[in-house]
Amino acid sequence: MLLDLPSTREESWRWGDPAAIAAAAGLPRGEALAGAWFLDLEGARAVFVDGVLDEGRSDLRHVAIAPLEGGEHVLGRRTTGNGWSLRVDANASAELIQIVHISTGGDNQLPAEIVLAGGAQASVVETYVGTGWSNRSTRITLGAGAKLTRAVRLLQASGFVSLRDEAEVGAGASLIVTVLGAGDAGTRIDGAITVSGDDAFAEYGGALLTRNAQKQECALSVRHAALNGQSKQIWRAVAADTSTASLAARVEVARDAQKTDGVQSLRGLLLKRTATVNLKPELEIFADDVKCAHGATVGELDQRALFYMQSRGIPHAKAQALLTRAFVGDAFAQIADETVRDAFVADADAWLEAALSAPLPLAGGAGGGASS
Amino acid sequence: MLKIENLHAEIDGKEILKGLSLTANAGEVHAIMGPNGAGKSTLGYVLGGRPGYEVTSGSVTFDGVDLLELEAHERAAAGVFLGFQYPVEIPGVSNVQFLREALNAQRATRDEKALSGGEFLKLARAQADLLGMDYDMLKRPVNVGFSGGEKKRNEMVQMGIVNPKFAILDETDSGLDIDALRVVGDGINRIMRAPDKAVLLITHYQRLLDYVEPDFVHVLADGRIVRSGGKELAQQLESEGYVGIAA
């Protein structure tokens, strides 16, 4: 199979891992994983196995299956074909939509579109499990005053997941996307968000947790093209072992996009000195009356905090896990739905337990007291 | 209870403790005073097991156990509490979660049953009340945004919750106003003044000793105890300074 993937000599792919994509695509197909991947929430449900709808396990409601374009992007365009479409009429609210992508091996492509008319609202939760190469494009159009929240859990145990997201955020609209990479698959997220209407809000953030020799990366750009826009990019990267987590985040403010208020916070945590976190914050500002706060830091866990916790009786591995959980938690704060947020925290905890070999208590719940 | 013999310790290859010996029995409060750089905080950290502080010779036994062989968290579970001169801020971890983790981890190390959420909250609320700390502060991230006095008060709340056998309190009085000093002093007496407990009070000043009366006062200078006496030694230091006494 000729994949025609980009080269790491291209700047936007300098931390990319096309070889991992090719390797994932070459994994043999197998049985679909069984498991309860849906969160305990009412609403529409769709299961895609290797990019194909499993009708027996789906309840589509607002969602339609339709031929869709994947766009121009080097990975996104490969998805052109049948995909899922969510279109919500003006001032209507769609029920929560949960989508589970089960990949069994090989490569699978699936396009998606989310089109919310003026004042419409929708909420989407996507979960990726399995193996192989899952390639997705999601094209989002938000009309005036529309609101979309989208939460993406990348939990594939092996292989590769690539997401191409393109969004147009209309006047007064709000887009909130949160991504958690907590599986063992390679990850590439390409996001291109345009804040095209006045007074709009776009938040695109999350956490990439990498271990062993895994590589996950996100290349995101938010372009402000209208007045009074607000955007946030809050990302946390945690890298263990010899893994690499990379974040390239860009904010562009066009000449006319006065009063833009942008926040960009990229923070990396190295759990081992053999791990790598790459951060590339970029600001390109052509308007003169804007506020763009930005910060990028990479470090290790605070040794003083670790000792403080140990001196109170908390074993080292558990102290590490608690501090790392707190570090990652910043990236989930914008998830409004408690069940979804708890799922993200639980996914991150499961990752931390595996990466640090330390059991964590339920946040705020009973139990605790285990030591490693 | 605690027996330190000829303790030598260094950090980054520099020797700080140079043959320190001290015995503290159950029921006793020992004050350690001394000039800046004498090794007071180093003594606290060495006893607490802070990484980077290397013991090159000597021994420390706690209730007959070799304390230096224990990990920091095991020392806590054994009943040793280190009150920090500069309590650390931990963003993203609430006081309640931190303390419950700490207490239950100690209990687990001692093979005791974990406290339930309800049991723990009752205990935490009672200790916060006794130290005049607003209960809402227990829900906030550990020490984040706390004033110096609030951090020290929080140390005492923590001590009340874990209820140690032996407390090493490193300049717990620094940064406290007069009222807070009284509250903290009362806390130390209430939590630690018992026939089966002992305290090592590291301080620069006499004023905390007005509230927590020591049974013994030691002067630490250049990594060693150079003089020991009763509480009157602290008053003498206050009026005469370290220069003459430590020389």
UniProtKB/TrEMBL annotation, chain A:
<dbReference type="InterPro" id="IPR037284">
    <property type="entry name" value="SUF_FeS_clus_asmbl_SufBD_sf"/>
</dbReference>
<dbReference type="GO" id="GO:0016226">
    <property type="term" value="P:iron-sulfur cluster assembly"/>
</dbReference>
<dbReference type="InterPro" id="IPR055346">
    <property type="entry name" value="Fe-S_cluster_assembly_SufBD"/>
</dbReference>
<feature type="domain" description="SUF system FeS cluster assembly SufBD core">
    <location>
        <begin position="114"/>
        <end position="327"/>
    </location>
</feature>
<dbReference type="Pfam" id="PF01458">
    <property type="entry name" value="SUFBD_core"/>
</dbReference>
<protein>
    <submittedName>
        <fullName>Fe-S cluster assembly protein SufD</fullName>
    </submittedName>
</protein>
<dbReference type="InterPro" id="IPR000825">
    <property type="entry name" value="SUF_FeS_clus_asmbl_SufBD_core"/>
</dbReference>
UniProtKB/TrEMBL annotation, chain B:
<keyword id="KW-0547">Nucleotide-binding</keyword>
<dbReference type="InterPro" id="IPR003439">
    <property type="entry name" value="ABC_transporter-like_ATP-bd"/>
</dbReference>
<protein>
    <submittedName>
        <fullName>Fe-S cluster assembly ATP-binding protein</fullName>
    </submittedName>
</protein>
<keyword id="KW-0067">ATP-binding</keyword>
<dbReference type="InterPro" id="IPR027417">
    <property type="entry name" value="P-loop_NTPase"/>
</dbReference>
<comment type="similarity">
    <text>Belongs to the ABC transporter superfamily. Ycf16 family.</text>
</comment>
<dbReference type="Pfam" id="PF00005">
    <property type="entry name" value="ABC_tran"/>
</dbReference>
<dbReference type="InterPro" id="IPR010230">
    <property type="entry name" value="FeS-cluster_ATPase_SufC"/>
</dbReference>
<feature type="domain" description="ABC transporter">
    <location>
        <begin position="2"/>
        <end position="247"/>
    </location>
</feature>
<dbReference type="GO" id="GO:0005524">
    <property type="term" value="F:ATP binding"/>
</dbReference>
<dbReference type="GO" id="GO:0016887">
    <property type="term" value="F:ATP hydrolysis activity"/>
</dbReference>
